[in-house]
Structure to design on (844 residues):
């Protein structure tokens, strides 16, 4: 008889009110395998993981650990069973040190009354060093998002788990960090630990995982050996239809225009970036790549007045602009979509209509300083229809929407002011394949209509698939420009990391995201 | 298919507005139930006199609640309102006794309250302290000012001209001016909060300050002016109290801030900012007032009253929390 699966989920069903989040889902995890779970947002991945990690209780069905039925009543019960979860959302205490955060979960299991901080720091540093040279005495709030993600992973590594769940662990990581993480996951596997790996990135799944289970609309679709399927197959099972073209067609050579919408010259903020030049032509989508922390976001903030600059200027349609504040940028016609959707992109507890109108309040305000409610509703309905936001009605809070639809609302908000240039920072982070493709389509249409689009992205397939031209930023300045013909993952990585060459086949994103 | 999903989603999540009105309808139901129960329990409850007394008792506080609700929506809080009410009353009274006419004295009292709001707003937005600590200090400092101005003894203002006393004591066709002023303030701010662009920015700032900043809203300015507005309304209430009582007591309004905050929170304002309505807050203070009146009429010892009110606050907030949790899952 083959050995028992470490974890076996049988016919699990979970309702939220009248909505079935999971319907008779089956899933089994063998010892020492890396098992990918795929599905669009809302497919039930998070619900299933929350059930396994003890955050939620199933309504029906059973969970077997080593063949024994168990009830996982809380996250700490899951930990006792050896099940750990690396959250997608970073759940760290910002005021505490890295070391304290790493041992937060295991602290509750300690016997001794007093903390031995020196020992704690030493042990934390050992774990941390496996991932990245981050000083564990630093406060978490002083770390970049990608470093925080690494701390989150280090925290899970200290738990002595037999089953470790990674929920989109690479969303905020750079290529180099992703590579280190993959090595660690493979080491864990070699030690007999079973891994559940959730990701939207097909390339990662095919590079790392042994088996892949697909969920769709809360139902189990399939489980297969990764070796037996192609990325296309998996995507087709996830969406339940063929995605013939994942990215919209690019600009043709004839469409290329010499007209420059936005030009940035010698932009400098005296600390994070210096001597930045860039030009955005009419009709093109300009990509900006580079490692996280290379200054990409800061440059965008500098262009649109969210960060003070010390030198250089911005020209819009050839006219020099003096942009002192973000309000000034919006007035000039430059808008910025932040990378942190929930933190600074949308107002979760306000209605869709109120979100879309925020930049445009002045235009909606009548003589008495009152908001014209009818015009506001019209604006919101118009833009949400144009962007295909799936929602109940415009008075519902944005928090009721899926991530992809929230992002569409954030984009609608920017379009409402009829901008000339939109800078988008990670426009599709954490969004499912279907919505992602819709957003890409939308960006292409906007570009074609004459709006300048700049996309900052950490996802190489996105830069390559979507953009007509890519600028790579390294250490706060433009390291190089790649045109249509010389755009490859390798070229981007080389420019971003400053390496002269990269070993072939080492990059996790090496294979293009479906055809 | 699209229509199917729309309908399903609509059923699943009640809209923001529907939830808001649900909460207000719930409060009205609780208040009515309490009134009906009390009308059986006490013959004095269901009388015009008692209702008028109840309305009078929460009318002036209601003006303060309006300011507090807006401040809570922006994500702030003001513990100094009780002291500021007293300050406006005491300062205006003092200036009147010093020879100023009561209208000018009152205006100066209200402006001085605004100034206190400006100082607190300065510490919150420029220095960068939080509202809680700033207003805690403000509460103590302003109370100190009241004691300094009065040298610790109540000011007797029986010489106030009848035209001024009329604000607090007179009535128009049987409706006290206090109630008219209160209703006017409530209707005005309820309308403005729903419709005015300037107050919409209060919701944006309270809901997600960073996103508001990234949308070109000057969030510090918004927070500053809302702080000033809250103090100004408190000052306005203080002047009305002066007219009503014909006296200015340096200890007046101590503990009032807790009642005010409780009312706003019962009415649906979130301490995390981003939500709250004037109507809800007014129903909140009406509920507290009906409860107080009932406790008095039922002859329940004053020693018990605070405890019972505290329990009501805890229950209301727990129910709300439970409802929100259900909505979120």
């Amino acid at each position: 008889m083959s050995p028992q699966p470490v974890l076996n989920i049988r016919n699990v069903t979970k309702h939220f009110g009248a909505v079935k989040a999971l319907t008779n889902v089956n899933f089994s995890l063998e010892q020492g395998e890396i098992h990918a779970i795929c599905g669009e947002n809302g497919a039930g991945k998070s619900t299933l993981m929350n059930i396994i990690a003890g955050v939620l209780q199933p309504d029906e069905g059973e969970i077997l650990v080593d063949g024994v039925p168990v009830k996982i009543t809380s996250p700490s019960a899951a930990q006792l069973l050896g099940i750990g979860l690396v959250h997608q959302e970073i759940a760290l205490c910002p005021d505490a040190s890295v070391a304290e955060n790493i041992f937060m979960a295991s602290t509750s299991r300690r016997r001794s009354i007093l903390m031995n901080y020196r020992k704690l720091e030493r042990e934390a540093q050992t774990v941390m060093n496996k991932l990245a040279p981050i000083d564990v005495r630093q406060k978490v709030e002083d770390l970049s998002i990608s470093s925080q993600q690494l701390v989150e992973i280090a925290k899970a590594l200290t738990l002595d788990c037999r089953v470790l769940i990674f929920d989109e662990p690479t969303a905020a990581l750079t290529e180099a960090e992703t590579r280190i993480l993959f090595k660690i996951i493979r080491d864990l596997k070699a030690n007999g630990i079973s891994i559940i790996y959730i990701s939207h990135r097909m390339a990662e799944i095919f590079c790392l995982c042994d088996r892949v289970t697909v969920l769709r609309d809360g139902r189990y679709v399939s489980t297969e050996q990764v070796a037996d399927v192609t990325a296309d197959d998996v995507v087709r099972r996830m969406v339940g239809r063929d995605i013939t073209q994942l990215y919209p067609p690019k600009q043709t050579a004839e469409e290329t225009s010499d007209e420059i919408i936005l030009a940035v010259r010698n932009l400098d903020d005296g600390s994070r970036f210096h001597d930045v030049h860039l030009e955005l032509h009419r009709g093109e989508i300009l990509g900006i790549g580079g490692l996280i922390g290379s200054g990409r976001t800061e440059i965008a903030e500098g262009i649109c007045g969210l960060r003070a600059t010390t030198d250089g200027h911005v020209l819009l349609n050839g006219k020099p602009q003096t942009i002192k504040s973000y309000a000034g940028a919006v007035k000039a016609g430059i808008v910025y979509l932040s990378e942190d959707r929930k933190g600074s992109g949308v107002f979760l507890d306000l209605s869709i209509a109120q979100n879309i109108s925020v930049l445009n309040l002045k235009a909606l305000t009548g003589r008495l300083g009152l908001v014209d409610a009818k015009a506001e509703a019209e604006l919101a309905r118009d833009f949400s229809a144009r962007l295909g936001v799936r929602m109940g009605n415009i008075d519902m809070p944005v928090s009721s929407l899926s991530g992809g639809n929230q992002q569409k609302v954030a984009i609608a908000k920017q379009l409402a002011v009829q901008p000339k240039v939109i800078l988008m920072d990670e426009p599709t982070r954490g969004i499912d394949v279907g919505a992602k493709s819709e957003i890409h389509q939308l960006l292409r249409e906007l570009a074609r209509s004459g709006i300048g689009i700049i996309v900052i992205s950490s996802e190489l397939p996105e830069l390559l698939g979507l953009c007509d031209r890519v600028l790579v930023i390294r250490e706060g300045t433009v390291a190089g420009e790649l045109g249509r013909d010389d755009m490859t993952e390798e070229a981007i990585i080389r420019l971003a990391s400053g390496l002269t060459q990269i070993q072939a086949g080492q990059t996790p994103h090496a294979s293009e995201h479906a055809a | 298919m699209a229509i199917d999903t729309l309908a399903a989603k609509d059923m699943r999540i009640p809209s923001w507005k529907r939830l808001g009105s649900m909460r207000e309808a719930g409060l009205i139901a609780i208040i009515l139930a309490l009134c009906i129960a009390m009308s059986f329990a006490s013959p004095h409850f269901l009388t015009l006199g008692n209702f008028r007394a109840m309305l009078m008792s929460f009318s002036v506080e209601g003006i303060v609640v309006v300011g507090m609700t807006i401040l809570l929506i922006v994500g702030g809080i003001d513990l100094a309102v009780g002291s500021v009410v007293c300050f406006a009353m005491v300062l205006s009274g003092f200036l009147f006794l010093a020879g100023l006419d009561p209208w000018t004295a009152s205006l100066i009292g209200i402006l001085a309250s605004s100034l206190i709001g400006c100082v607190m707003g300065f510490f919150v937005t420029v220095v960068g302290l939080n509202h809680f600590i700033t207003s805690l200090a403000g509460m103590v400092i302003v109370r100190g000012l009241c004691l300094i101005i009065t040298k610790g003894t109540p000011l007797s203002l029986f010489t106030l001209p009848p035209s001024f006393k009329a604000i607090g004591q007179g009535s128009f066709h049987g409706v006290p001016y206090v109630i008219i002023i209160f209703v006017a303030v409530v209707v005005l701010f309820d309308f403005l909060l729903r419709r005015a662009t300037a107050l919409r920015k209060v919701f944006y700032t309270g809901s997600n300050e960073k996103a508001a900043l990234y949308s070109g809203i000057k969030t510090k300015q918004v927070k500053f002016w809302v702080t000033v507005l809250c103090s100004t309304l408190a000052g306005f209430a203080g002047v009305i109290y002066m007219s009503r009582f014909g006296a200015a007591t340096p200890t007046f309004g101590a503990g009032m801030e807790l009642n005010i905050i409780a009312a706003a929170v019962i009415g649906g304002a979130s301490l995390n900012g981003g939500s709250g309505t004037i109507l809800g807050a007014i129903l909140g203070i009406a509920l507290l007032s009906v409860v107080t009146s009932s406790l008095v009429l039922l002859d329940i010892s004053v020693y018990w009253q605070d405890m019972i009110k505290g329990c009501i606050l805890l229950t209301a907030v727990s129910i709300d929390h439970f409802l929100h949790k259900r909505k979120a899952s």
